[in-house]
Write a structure and sequence with these properties.
A hairpin with a 2-residue loop joins β10 (192-196) and β11 (199-202). This protein has a domain at 31-54 and 88-154 and 165-202. Strands 1, 2, 3, 4, 5, 6, 7, 8, 9, 10 and 11 form an eleven-stranded antiparallel sheet that branches. The chain is mainly β. 8% of the residues lie in helices and 36% in strands. The relative contact order is 0.25. The radius of gyration is 18 Å and the shape is elongated.
């Protein structure tokens, strides 16, 4: 396993570590529990980094890898679930998609070691944030975006949350954003975490 930003690889599986349950699961995408924008050199780009993902869900398939070692014998596939976007663009950060199945490695989360061992993968992707045309000029638009980013209840999308005909939205690309995922098999609550560079998202 290559060097990681937030994970320390384990050489062997700890004694008594529960087996990672395999199968297919539906994972709702919630608002981030913590969002940081301090690494942005230009503070005017804060809205363009938006951590808000329009309400949707992932279908996650976990599979064992026969013959692999006990620290890398599982893999995961992510795809968007049934609650997806039917031919329209929702404002906000677009959910990252995995181009290929990812091998999970057993690690310790260096920023949250108290949660115990975790199955982990990381990969770069091109983060895309879609914003309304007036996002960088209208104070009311900025307040709306900040409110949705901090609202963990993720209310259903309204007409104002979706690009309409004749709208001129901004498409903000952050190439090479690092996606990291941790699955904590020793935790019974909020036992998966996704985050991208300066954003931690517990789901």
């Amino acid at each position: 396993m290559t060097t990681t930003f937030d994970a320390t690889p384990l050489r062997t599986a700890p004694a008594g570590l529960p087996t990672l349950p395999t199968g297919t699961y539906e994972l709702p995408i919630s608002a981030p529990s913590t969002a940081q924008q301090g690494c942005l050199v230009n503070s005017a780009q804060a809205d363009a980094w938006s951590c808000n993902i329009p309400m949707t869900s992932y279908t996650i398939t976990l599979t064992g890898i026969p013959g692999a070692s006990d620290v890398d014998d599982n893999e995961v596939d992510f795809s968007l679930g049934n609650n997806t976007f039917p031919g329209w663009y929702a404002y906000g950060s677009q959910p990252p998609l995995l181009p290929t199945t990812q091998v999970l490695n057993l690690v310790t989360d260096s920023q949250d070691p108290s949660r115990g061992p975790a199955w982990f993968f990381e990969l770069p992707y091109d983060k895309l944030v879609i914003l309304p045309e007036n996002a960088f000029t209208s104070s009311s638009s900025k307040r709306d975006i900040e409110y949705r980013d901090s609202d963990h209840s993720q209310p259903p999308l309204s007409r104002d949350d979706v690009a309409q005909t004749n709208d001129k939205p901004w498409f903000c690309y952050w190439n090479g954003t690092l996606l990291e995922a941790f699955i904590y098999v020793s935790n019974n609550h909020s036992n998966m975490k996704l985050f991208t560079n300066n954003q931690r998202r517990s789901i």
